[in-house]
Amino acid sequence: LADEDFMAMPGVPPGAAQGGWMTSKSWAGLKRRLLHALITEDSFVFAMGGHSAAAGHGNHYFQSYTLQVAWILEPIFARLGVKHQARNIANGGMGTGQNAMASAYLFGPDVDMLMWDSGMTERGERDPDLMARQAIIGGIKVPLLYSFPLGVLKKLNHFGECDVGTSGSGMSGVADAKTKEDLDNIAWAARYMKCASDINNAFCKPKEYNSTCWIPREDYTPTKPQDKYVGGRASWHPGFRAHQIRGRSIAFVILRALYEALGEWGAASNFQLDEEKWHVTTYYKHIREKVLGIAEENSPCYQMKGVGLGKLCNLPMKSRSDWSPRAYPNDSAMHHVMPKEQLEYRDAPVDIAYQPPDVHNPYLHPIPGAVDVLNIVSNGPAFRPIARTTYESFYDIPPMSLDKPMHKPGKGYMWYHPSGFCDGSLDSFCKREATNSCLLTQHNDSRSGVIGGPVSGWLLFQIPKVEHGYIVIKVESWHFKNEMTKTAGWKSINNENDGRRMEESTNYLRSNANGNDNSNSNDGVGGGGGNDESF
After folding, report:
1. Got the DSSP string for 287-310?
2. Which of 43, 79, 98, 159 is spaced 20 to 30 Å from 342 by Cα?
3. CA nearest 240: which of 53, 113, 18, 89?
4. What is the C-alpha to C-alpha distance for residues 316 and 301, in angstroms, rounded to an integer?
């Protein structure tokens, strides 16, 4: 799709039921990113931010379309010496605002292709534009923007010269089934997806999901009874086949670009590609400068000025959060910027009930006799790259101790977060605590954080490399004191009986007189849910 045709097009570009669309310049930009990853043995990362349907609720986490991208691409890229990762950074019941304020930190600074999928919970263009801008100006790489609202893509493509595109559903090639016999003649992966109304309820609807909560293993038996299947089956949550075909569609776009890129490299004299084909430093710098130069009237992000957060649109923000999933969770956690004086009072992390990996889960794979794409693309040895690119150093580490603390650290805070490793990828092993009634759900989605009350004391942070003095803290204001079991019975701050105490109050921010939760309003800081700190 020519860039000028995209700008002039009044409606949605073609390809919605196929593999999607991309402008011609953006297609070249995708190939440039792929060639750079191949030549430098860098990573190639696809990340998505969205709501519960995008997270894959109702299915195993690994069945979500984002992780189905990695399901196919990871072994292929491994043969080429490239580490591929897909990150499903979606949160049920939320938009992307809480992560958008510092998307380069929470989605990762190394994202090559960034997708937005939150149309069900996020109206308008403000927060998606913020998510895109922060990823562009705040990270190491400048991602290609995928499936953002059309108005956001047009403005960033035209005024910021960003690479843009949108995924397709992949449904154009799926056969219709009018009878039970028709279903039997359709390949297993596409079976039950397009059904006539008179066979849908009897044959197709019961096959929409495919999951289990537990498969016996020798080293552990759950102490909590396990559910029959993964929860979250709702009319607005697509099943595993819909996720699978969308993931295949996205993967095919990347593979087609990879195929063309390898062809261009192979056709180059002595395999010496022109630098313009694969160098990215100047390319990224140009896009960042163009985006920062976009006039406010052409950037929906600047609607943030109405809630006093306009600076988020042009200052690269750093962040620490306890929400999950998030990229590099050990480095991007809030405790990573707490001094040791505060960490002494941090609750111990919740233990996982058993060690990874999970036993083989047949619910994640085709039935016997069906085409198994993973087995095909995984057949053969991986290429061992010489370079081992890592991006953990992007997350600044502050001094571990306070030289002259102004306040005593608070002893009365509670940390609540899921067990395990929750980075939104196929490498994750999350929510495996013994109290989980579906240990094989694999989902990373959690609004975790720190909870405190009137006698909890000061919560101390060491924020490194503050440049503009602009700090945003996200809090939930609807919790009640009976949740604070750690300080039950305390009569003073830190329970030190020195007379310091805040007065009790029955009033709660953004709550009505009856104490009902009114936290879902969009106040420009991302709505209610979890403690998230951006700086």
Report:
1. HHHHHHTS-GGG-GGGGGGGGT-G
2. 98
3. 53
4. 14
Query: How is 95-112 classified by DSSP, letter by letter?
Result: -SHHHHTTHHHHT-TT-S
Whether residue 433 contacts residue 220, with contact meaning beta carbons closer than 8 Å, is answered with: no
Round to whole Å and give the CA distance between 198 and 205.
11
- Say if residues 166 and 21 touch (Cβ distance below 8 Å): yes
Side chain identity at residue 350, one-letter code = V
Judged by average pLDDT, the poorest of 34-43, 321-330, 467-476 is 467-476
- Whose tokens are 């988020």? That residue is 312
- pLDDT tens digit string along 271-325? 999 999 999 999 999 999 999 999 999 999 999 999 999 999 999 999 999 999 9
pLDDT exceeds 60 at position 519: no
Does the model's pTM come out above 0.85?
yes
* Residues paired with residue 114 on neighbouring β-strands, in sequence order: 47, 145
Cβ 91 vs Cβ 272: under 8 Å: no
| CB 90 within 8 Å of CB 67 | no
Which residue, among 229, 243, 152, 135, has the nearest Cα to 189 in the 3D structure?
243
